[in-house]
């Protein structure tokens, strides 16, 4: 298996030329890297104007490996070839390295780049990538891989320290400025010697403006001169090391690499809004930074978020009054670590009454809205406390818990909620404090604990009776000033007290089912029915050419053909459910036809995209850049399976199918948006807009056993 590494962008708040002067001091050997024994120059080239300097070195390394392994391999040292290409005109240094020793058994490649910061020419960016592929190594492949990764990561950590060490060394020698390269014709007396023309520069590394990263913001560091700090960022929306440390926490080099690679994969293959870095990191942590497992679970979660419109739940869904009155839970300040604190008085809550009055779906939606609010509060607290906060603390008071809480439908609803939250909000629970656990609690714990992840269970702290008031209790995690009054604290807690839900509010099973359907239809997606001979069409008027029409739809039933047409004149007002001889109504969705039967293709309207056949269960996202103003028609048309080519006679199955109205009906759920070309972010091969609310739809979205990947139209 090939191991890959991709670093974040490290920003040095020093000019490129000064960084190069510090970098060159690493050769021929570097005492800060004990394994780097020596290096010899093999080839060297310098252009006539001095702008390009290419040097190739043979580096001798003393790998920290067991003596037995070295004896079996028959070597004491490992040799690498390193090629440095310095372009002083463009102010870039590209470093390429590969192993010479055991090159037929082990393939190691590394590429590093120093370049000028895109927004501040007096700063320097650095990033590196590497790959390791062990073909065979005397049966010690796994051992060699571990040794190689350990050595490499330790050197990565030292890389920044080494540059800063030599920068300080230069400063002690009075060298704080290196002139830029200029063409000889402009300055024939140009020398490459170093000079002292500027005051000493700060050796600190700036924290880039996180407004370029997921909309976060912070106060920039002040410069030595007191001048306003320039905006910092990284090229191509890449992650930089200081941003990671400030907003995501301390990560090892390999953890940083996993985050960057997974994020890069989303940028390259994603057809929607890129998830926030904190969101990606949570899934990586939940899977111990196994990138393939994290990618799979995250894509499944993003698909789920789209299907249930979770991204919009805080803006579009309001909890019923019954929940506001009888759900005994709410947010209450924060704990000592700055995590948002959620208080749940489970013992005072009538779970049976809530399920009977609302149903599972409404309860689940309410819990989802609580989790979405928790994510929002984590972002706010990250800004307030100046350190990464990615999880919250939950305080559960079980006083009053009894056998009525073990009502089977209520426990079933609880288990479902736990399952959904575990799958879609990993690593969001920082600590769970369970207080005043009664004797019946072990029964409930036995029922729910198998559904809780092992990592999550380790965050549980359970206190019986008044144990929470003693040493190691609540005061270790929550400031005394904010302990709720019902726990003998001083702070008034606005969490509802719960109580029994009046039976007059109970709903029948049919009413709850209809309510669930209503909740589902509260979405930005529209539903449409497509019949044989009666396509569904929508009209989009374009005023400015070069606008971008984007679409996102799911084929819920049947197969359809998707078309896009353009017309200079507006169609007549739509005729709803105009189904001709079929005379079929469509309660499950609209059916609108815009193209008049007398219109002729090529004369009255034209096709601007090739037809796309979409199978049942597929999800399709795409975009079209308009060339002309006018009226664009998006059409979903019934797709008939072609008859057997071997005979002109219809098959029995075809005749039987033609007699069934249901076989002539398809259903789609769609969403469209028109975006100005200047707002359309990314290439034309992705449905990605800085103003759009599209969510990820992974290749695993399809429900059809014959379709294993989501389709995408894009031009």
How would you describe this protein?
The protein has 715 residues and is an alpha+beta fold. The chain contains 16 helices and 25 strands. Helix 5 (253-269) packs across helix 6 (277-286). The protein is globular. Residues 188-236, 519-523, 576-588, 643-662 and 681-715 have low confidence and may be disordered.
Determine the strand fraction and express it as a percent band: 15-25%
Mean pLDDT: 79
CA distance, first residue to last residue? 36 Å
Largest sheet: 8 strands, antiparallel
Can you count the beta strands? 25
**Distinct helical segment count:** 16
C-alpha geometry: globular
Structural class: alpha+beta
Radius of gyration: 32 Å
Helix content: 25-40%
pLDDT < 50 runs, ≥5 residues: 188-236, 519-523, 576-588, 643-662, 681-715
Pfam families: CRAL_TRIO, CRAL_TRIO_N, PRELI
Domain PRELI/MSF1: 3-175
Domain CRAL-TRIO: 319-495
Domain GOLD: 521-674
Features:
715 residues; alpha+beta; 8-stranded antiparallel β-sheet; 5-stranded mixed β-sheet; GOLD_dom; SEC14-like protein 1 isoform X2; PRELI/MSF1_dom; CRAL/TRIO_N_dom_sf
Tell me the layout of helices and strands.
Layout: E1 3-6, E2 10-12, H1 16-24, E3 36-46, E4 52-61, H2 67-73, E5 78-87, E6 92-99, E7 106-117, E8 120-134, H3 141-172, H4 241-247, H5 253-269, H6 277-286, H7 291-307, H8 313-316, H9 321-326, E9 329-334, E10 340-344, H10 351-358, H11 360-385, E11 392-397, H12 408-424, E12 429-437, H13 441-448, H14 454-457, E13 460-464, H15 509-521, E14 526-531, E15 536-542, E16 548-557, E17 560-567, E18 575-576, E19 592-593, E20 606-607, E21 612-614, E22 619-625, E23 630-638, H16 652-658, E24 665-675, E25 711-714
Parallel strand pairs: 10-11, 11-12, 12-13, 22-25
Antiparallel strand pairs: 1-8, 2-8, 3-4, 4-5, 5-6, 6-7, 7-8, 9-10, 14-24, 15-23, 16-22, 16-24, 17-20, 17-21, 17-23, 18-19
Helix pairs in contact: 1-3, 5-6, 6-7, 11-12
Protein name: SEC14-like protein 1 isoform X2
Region (Disordered): 214-238
Domain PRELI/MSF1: 3-175
């Amino acid at each position: 298996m090939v191991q890959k590494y991709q670093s974040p962008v490290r920003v040095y708040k020093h000019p490129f030329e000064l960084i190069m002067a510090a970098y060159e001091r690493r050769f021929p050997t570097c005492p800060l890297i004990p394994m780097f024994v020596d290096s010899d120059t093999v080839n060297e080239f310098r252009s006539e104007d001095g702008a390009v300097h290419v040097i190739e070195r043979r580096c001798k390394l003393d790998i920290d490996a067991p003596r037995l392994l070295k004896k079996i391999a028959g070597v004491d040292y490992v040799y690498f070839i390193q090629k440095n290409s310095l372009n002083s005109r463009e102010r870039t240094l590209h470093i390429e390295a590969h192993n010479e020793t055991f090159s037929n058994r082990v393939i190691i490649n590394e590429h590093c780049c120093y370049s000028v910061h895109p927004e501040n020419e007096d700063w320097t960016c650095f990033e590196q990538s590497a790959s390791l592929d062990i073909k065979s190594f005397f049966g010690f492949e796994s051992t060699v891989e571990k040794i190689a990764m350990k050595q490499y990561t330790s050197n990565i950590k030292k890389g920044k320290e080494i540059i800063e060490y030599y920068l300080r060394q230069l400063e002690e020698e009075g060298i704080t400025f290196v002139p830029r390269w200029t063409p000889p014709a402009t300055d024939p007396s140009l020398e490459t010697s170093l000079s002292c023309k500027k005051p000493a520069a700060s050796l600190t590394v700036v924290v880039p403006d996180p407004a370029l990263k997921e909309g976060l913001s912070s106060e920039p560091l002040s410069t030595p001169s007191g001048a306003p700090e320039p905006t910092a960022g990284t090229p191509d929306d890449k992650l930089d090391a200081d941003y990671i440390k400030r907003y995501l926490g301390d990560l090892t080099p390999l953890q940083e690499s996993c985050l960057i690679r997974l994020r890069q994969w989303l940028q390259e293959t994603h057809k929607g809004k890129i998830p926030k870095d904190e969101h990606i990191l949570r899934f990586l942590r939940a899977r111990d930074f196994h990138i393939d497992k994290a990618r799979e679970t995250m894509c499944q979660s993003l698909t789920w978020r789209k299907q249930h419109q979770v991204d919009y739940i805080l803006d579009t869904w309001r909890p019923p009054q019954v929940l506001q009155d009888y759900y005994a839970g709410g947010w209450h300040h924060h704990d000592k670590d700055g995590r948002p604190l959620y208080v749940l008085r489970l013992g005072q809550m009538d779970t049976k009454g809530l399920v009977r009055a609302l149903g599972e779906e409404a309860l689940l939606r309410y819990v989802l809205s609580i989790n979405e609010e928790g994510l929002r509060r984590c972002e706010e607290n990250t800004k307030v406390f100046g350190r990464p906060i990615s999880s919250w603390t939950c305080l559960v008071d079980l006083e009053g818990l009894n056998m009525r809480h073990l009502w089977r439908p209520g426990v079933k609803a609880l288990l479902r909620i736990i399952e959904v939250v575990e799958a879609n909000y990993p690593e969001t629970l920082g600590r769970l404090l369970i207080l005043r656990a009664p004797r019946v609690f072990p029964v409930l714990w036995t029922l729910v604990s198998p559904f809780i992840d092992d990592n999550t269970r380790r965050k549980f702290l359970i206190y019986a009776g008044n144990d929470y008031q003693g040493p190691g209790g609540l005061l270790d995690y929550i400031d005394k000033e904010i302990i709720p009054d019902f726990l003998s604290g001083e702070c008034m807690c606005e969490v509802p007290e719960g109580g029994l839900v009046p039976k007059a509010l109970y709903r029948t099973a049919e009413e709850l089912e209809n309510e669930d359907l209503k909740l589902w239809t509260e979405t930005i997606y529209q539903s449409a029915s497509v019949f044989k001979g009666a396509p569904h069409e929508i009209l989009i008027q374009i005023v400015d050419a070069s606008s971008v029409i984007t679409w996102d739809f799911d084929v819920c039933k049947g197969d359809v053909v998707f078309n896009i047409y353009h017309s200079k004149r507006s169609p007549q007002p739509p005729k709803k459910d105009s189904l001709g001889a079929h005379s079929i109504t469509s309660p499950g969705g609209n059916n609108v036809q815009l193209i008049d039967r007398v219109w002729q293709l090529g004369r009255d309207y034209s096709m601007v995209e090739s037809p796309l056949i979409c199978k049942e269960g597929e999800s399709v996202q795409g975009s079209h850049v308009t060339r002309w103003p006018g009226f664009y028609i998006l059409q979903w048309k019934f797709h008939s399976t072609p008859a057997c080519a071997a005979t002109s006679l219809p098959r029995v199955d075809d005749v039987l199918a033609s007699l069934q109205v249901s076989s002539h009906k398809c259903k789609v759920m769609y969403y469209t948006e028109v975006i100005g070309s200047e707002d359309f972010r990314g290439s034309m091969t992705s449905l990605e807009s800085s103003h759009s609310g599209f969510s990820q739809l992974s290749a695993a979205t399809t429900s059809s056993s014959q379709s294993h990947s989501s389709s995408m139209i894009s031009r």
